[in-house]
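Please decode residue identities from the backbone states below.
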């Protein structure tokens, strides 16, 4: 028998053959088992059955909310491919009342002619039913494309309750229909194409049986963000979004003639521009089209976005490497040639040049290679060469033609270099040895006994009272407690010098031990030095507590983002009520759960309710069993699903401008649970 406590240790693992030898099976049992494993046990999944059986193998995001919306993206990408091929200039997305959706383009229309190699079946039928079939494999059909594997449209078809394709082509209008990936309405002519304009319209409704664990409702803001993003990337294209659902009824049109330069300008947010207009660097090299839009702001945090064939590359890749290499090299040369840097001054490095930079790098190439099916990172080395060449040539030309702007950019980088040097001198704040010995670190940090970051937790607790309770409730072996006084600084509205002087922020930086990320991949932040692999925000379960949580998340997103990306940041879920039924008690975490529980206990009379106004009102035992005990507690892990979305959200909610915040509150107030 294996000991569970040792089963993950290599030296305690038992070889498989020894385990088999210990199983007492008779000869008859062995023969019976062999006889029962026959050809009847082999399942052959035909057509799209395999997709429905294992959707997670084919669909990014699986059967969760991300996968649900990925279905729309797959069909949308096909329409955008027609735009990139210069055959379409308008794309429409319509969300219908029944949560079905229609995506229309005015491109060439899916091919309807018969394919001799496929038994005479229409090409559009093959496109939506046969895996790895489609126009993306033929260089003559699409020079560049996002969908290169011939899978997307088929996956949507397989995982939809129904899918219908309406095609305008030549003189006729055609239709073909499917249910759960099975052809139910063969291709046929439904009318005359009187307008004479070609195009396709794909309508489908995701199958609730497949997406059984989520609410199958389209997220309008999420779809809107993607369409707005595409309107920048395919500048000059009209993209229309219509929502016909009850309570929604809206239509928005996106048209951005400025392309990626306008996109870079939109990333600036509340900060002021360092110069008047964004810069567009565009060109081609070895058949790869390169577009780079950039603009500098007076802020400190960079926004670097990368796209290959209109696909978001979250982890960038070779095209962004090409940009950063060329950008840094040209600006360093400009700095020296113009003799801008004073003698003895600290020279800017790569991250200094990125401070306040907003840039969108977009490439179009024939055969993109990505790190995974999620396409989060581009791998093509030729993309690096193409971007580097175009940026080198065009940026040098721009700086020569605009010497005042070049000097302004260089001076900002020089300021960043001086700030970096000052931060380096203060780096003793964030050493692991014993932060309690540092005068700048308040003694209110109660560290844990463990020195292993993988098992250590840092509890960021709202208020000294709650901090005192947490110190008494915690397990000293692996849980450290840092009480925070009041509401921390809103870093979205503060300058870096003000931020680094703030006592609470300095305490967090020092306790975490990895430094602070100011710009780009900042050399002053090292994820390997993080002292705790679980950093838990613990605030009261009320509106003020939620506000403090948002302030802390803003700080982590802007200056310690790798901690979020590594999955180290959590939010504790303390209860709001304690419900007592006689001598028995239970904890309730929100008003909705309390209402439901009281309805269940409507026949009881000896019920009392205690509402916790703050963590400090709990005793140590209660705080342990509800919020700190790893075997019973509930925590939310903070993640970044979309960098652009997160950036805009923090800018809107925490920035200087009031209008975006007011709009957000008006649109989302209905979802809030506010104490009155």
């Amino acid at each position: 028998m294996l000991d569970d406590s040792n089963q993950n240790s290599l030296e305690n693992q038992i070889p498989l053959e020894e385990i088999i030898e210990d199983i007492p099976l008779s000869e008859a049992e062995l023969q019976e088992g062999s006889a029962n494993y026959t050809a009847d046990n082999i399942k052959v999944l035909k057509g799209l059955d395999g997709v429905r059986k294992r959707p997670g193998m084919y669909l990014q995001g699986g059967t969760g909310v991300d996968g649900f919306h990925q279905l729309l993206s797959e069909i949308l990408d096909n329409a955008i491919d027609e735009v990139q091929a210069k055959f379409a200039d308008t794309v429409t997305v319509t969300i219908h009342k029944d949560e079905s959706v229609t995506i229309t383009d005015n491109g060439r229309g899916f091919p309807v002619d018969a394919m001799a190699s496929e038994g005479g079946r229409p090409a559009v039928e093959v496109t939506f039913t046969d895996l790895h079939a489609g126009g993306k494999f033929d260089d003559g059909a699409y020079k560049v494309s996002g969908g290169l594997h011939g899978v997307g449209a088929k996956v949507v078809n397989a995982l939809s309750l129904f899918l219908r394709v309406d095609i305008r082509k030549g003189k006729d209008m055609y239709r073909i229909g499917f249910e759960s990936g099975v052809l139910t309405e063969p291709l046929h002519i439904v009318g005359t194409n009187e307008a004479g304009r070609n195009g396709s319209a794909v309508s489908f409704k995701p199958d609730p049986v497949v997406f059984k664990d989520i609410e199958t409702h389209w997220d309008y803001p999420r779809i809107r963000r993607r369409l707005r993003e595409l309107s920048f990337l395919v500048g000059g294209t009209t993209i229309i979004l219509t929502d016909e659902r009850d309570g929604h009824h809206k239509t928005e049109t996106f048209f951005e003639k400025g392309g990626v330069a306008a996109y870079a300008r939109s990333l600036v947010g509340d900060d002021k521009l360092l110069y008047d207009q964004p810069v567009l660097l565009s060109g081609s090299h070895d058949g790869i089209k390169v577009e780079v839009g950039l603009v500098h702001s007076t802020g400190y945090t960079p926004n670097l976005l990368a796209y290959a064939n209109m696909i978001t590359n979250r982890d960038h890749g070779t095209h962004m490497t090409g940009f950063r290499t060329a950008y840094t090299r040209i600006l360093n040369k400009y700095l020296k040639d113009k003799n801008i840097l004073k003698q003895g001054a600290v020279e800017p490095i790569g991250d200094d040049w990125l401070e306040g930079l907003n840039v969108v790098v977009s490439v179009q190439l024939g055969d993109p290679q990505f790190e995974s099916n999620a396409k989060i990172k581009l791998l093509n080395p030729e993309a690096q060469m193409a971007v580097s060449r175009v940026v080198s040539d065009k940026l040098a030309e721009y700086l020569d033609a605009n010497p005042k702007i070049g000097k302004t950019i260089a001076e900002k980088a020089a300021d960043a270099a001086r700030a970096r040097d000052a931060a380096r001198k203060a780096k003793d704040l964030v050493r692991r040895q014993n932060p309690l010995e540092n005068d700048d670190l308040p003694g209110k940090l109660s560290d844990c006994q463990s020195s292993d970051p993988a098992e250590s937790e840092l509890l960021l607790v709202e208020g000294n009272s709650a901090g005192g309770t947490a110190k008494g409730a915690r397990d000293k072996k692996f849980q450290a407690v840092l009480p925070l006084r009041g509401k921390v600084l809103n870093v979205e509205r503060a300058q870096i010098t003000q931020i680094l002087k703030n006592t609470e922020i300095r305490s967090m930086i020092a306790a975490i031990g990895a430094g602070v990320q100011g710009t780009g991949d900042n050399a002053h932040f090292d994820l390997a030095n993080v002292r705790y692999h679980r950093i838990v925000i613990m605030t009261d379960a009320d509106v003020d507590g939620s506000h403090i949580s948002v302030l802390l998340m803003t700080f982590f997103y802007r200056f310690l983002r790798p901690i979020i990306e590594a999955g180290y940041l959590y939010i504790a879920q303390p209860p709001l009520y304690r419900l007592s039924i006689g001598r028995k008690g239970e904890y309730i975490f929100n008003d909705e759960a309390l209402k439901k529980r009281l309805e269940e206990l409507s026949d009881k009379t000896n019920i009392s309710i205690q509402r916790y106004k703050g963590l400090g009102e709990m005793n140590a035992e209660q705080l342990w069993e509800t919020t700190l005990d790893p075997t019973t507690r509930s925590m939310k892990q903070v993640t970044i699903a979309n960098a652009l979305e997160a950036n805009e959200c923090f800018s809107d909610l925490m920035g200087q401008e009031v209008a975006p915040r007011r709009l957000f509150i008006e649109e989302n107030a209905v979802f809030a649970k506010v104490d009155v």
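Observation: Residues 51-254 form a domain with the Heat Shock Protein 90 fold (CATH 3.30.565.10).
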